[in-house]
Amino acid sequence: MTNSTKPKVLTLDTINSNIRTVEYAVRGRIAIRSEEIRDELAHGKKFPFDRVVSCNIGNPQQLNQKPISFFRQVASLCENTDLLAEDKAELVSQLYPADTIARAKKILKTLGAGIGAYSHSQGAASIRQTVARFLLERDGHPANFNNIYLTQGASAGVQAILGLLTQSNKTGIMIPIPQYPLYSATLAYLGATPVHYLLEEESGWTLDIGSLKTTINASRAEGTDVRALVIINPGNPTGQCLDAGNMRDILSFCYEEGLVLLADEVYQTNIYNPETKPFVSFKKAMMEHPNEAIRTGLELVSFHSISKGMVGECGRRGGYYECCNFDEKVLEQVYKMASVSLCPNLHGQILVDLMCDPPRKGDVSYANYRAELDGIYESLRRRSKKLEGVFNAMEGVTCQPAEGSMYLFPRIRLPKKAIEKAASQGLAADAFYCEAMLEATGVCVVPGSGFGQKEDTWHFRSTFLPEEHLFDDFCANLSKFHADFLVTYSD
Ligand SMILES: Cc1ncc(COP(=O)(O)O)c(C=O)c1O
């Protein structure tokens, strides 16, 4: 057989050119190298460490966070429906708490066709009704289940809505700097224009309305049709939580400027100072805004996910978004586009149902559910404080506390020699630092340049997800690496 000499149809020059411009640092070059090292370790190659610690992504179960039992019990019964047959009742009642059996039966009954069939393209009506009740309980304001769309994780929802907003390459979407790169990547793919607004690190990554105004005016003056503002609250990678007053001003700004507000609220239960900085949803803030025109007229989309919080079911791909104050005709188009993918997967939908309606006081599973949830939460809080302290104790490093989310985003000041060496290798200085960290410790983090940062500042983002019994070693390794790095590159 002779090899084909026919030119490939698909080459780097012939694919969709927008795809070439997409960057996603969370799974970028350093993360790819970390996977290679993991493989090499497994094949006996020696490194100064014996395992790779993936702190590049908020993926709790990858770092052995235990799934919540109630969720898995109900999910497994929905999957293996034979266990719900009459003749298995006694056996199954010894293995599963009664409320998990009842719940699985209820879910299957309302789904009708079970989990192997497509559901409604917006997600099963019964599960959207659960989400609507959850929103009413959370915010004290009703939600219409027809305005709720279940998704394959928040990512799919964000992509759908950014797609809806993009009319041309003149379409501008305001995104924070630093930002979670889902936004920059999706805008690059769609060919829309990112309009960056800076968060203020020194004051705890706060958002200043004055700077939003300056940014939008400058962008519009250049001919960009700015149509939406993205807020990530609690922040990723920055971990800050907005207060109600600031949120009111953001809502007013959006209304006055004619912007759709996209509120990414996937970390709404990862809140570590609830007394001083509680989570307030944008839906609640909007419904309680003093201006009635805003309550009834501002177009708001809020996103949530089963991947974060104490749920951590990233691999199941479940989430939802709620559209408020949208034109009915536009909602029909949103539905049409959802129907092109037929439906979000049923495993994710079921977890959304369980997350939004977990065991309540008095239910058989409640005590265990509460203990598991509180155990994860308290541990995350302890780890976030400990790592923040470790970063702040490093020479030339400052780190704002994580008021929420799963990340810390320390600022690092690097010696001139390191910056020059990085440049000679065509790398950003923080990427160079993170690569050195990976090779020395096995810890994989993401350089600040992957999220965007103020010029001439360097950062990295690390999760605080490594297991608690390994956490002190993890912290000690990072401290030692940093000190050694400074010695190696001291001027
Ligand atoms: C701010 C933010 N939004 C959205 C997502 C996407 O989450 P998923 O698609 O798993 O729901 C993430 C994931 O890390 C995130 O950090």
Model description:
With 491 residues, this protein is of the alpha/beta class. It has two domains: 159 residues, Aspartate Aminotransferase, domain 1, CATH 3.90.1150.10; 247 residues, Aspartate Aminotransferase, domain 2 (3-Layer(aba) Sandwich). The chain is built from 18 helices and 14 strands. The chain has a seven-stranded mixed β-sheet with strand order 2-8-7-6-5-3-4, with helices on both faces. Helix 15 packs parallel to helix 18. The longest helix has 28 residues. 43% of the residues are buried. Pyridoxal-5'-phosphate binds next to helix 7.
Question: Which secondary structure elements does this structure contain, and how are they paired or packed?
Answer:
Elements: H1 17-21, H2 29-42, E1 53-54, H3 69-79, H4 89-95, H5 98-111, H6 125-139, E2 148-151, H7 153-165, E3 171-177, H8 182-190, E4 193-198, H9 209-221, E5 225-232, H10 244-257, E6 260-264, H11 282-287, H12 292-297, E7 300-305, E8 319-324, H13 328-340, H14 346-356, H15 366-393, E9 397-398, E10 407-408, E11 411-412, H16 416-424, H17 429-441, E12 443-444, E13 446-447, E14 458-463, H18 468-488
Helix pairs in contact: 3-5, 3-14, 6-14, 7-8, 15-18, 16-17, 17-18
The structure holds pyridoxal-5'-phosphate (PLP).
Helix residue percentage: 40-55%
- CATH superfamily of the largest domain, please? Type I PLP-dependent aspartate aminotransferase-like (Major domain)
Bound molecules: pyridoxal-5'-phosphate
Count all strands and give the number.
14
Q: Give the CA-based shape.
A: globular
Mean pLDDT across the residues is 95
Low-confidence stretches: none
What is the count of distinct domains?
2
The fold-level CATH name of the largest domain is Aspartate Aminotransferase, domain 2
Q: What is the gyration radius calculated from CA atoms?
A: 24 Å
Proportion of residues in extended strands:
5-15%
SS-based structural class? alpha/beta
Major beta sheet, strand line-up: 2-8-7-6-5-3-4
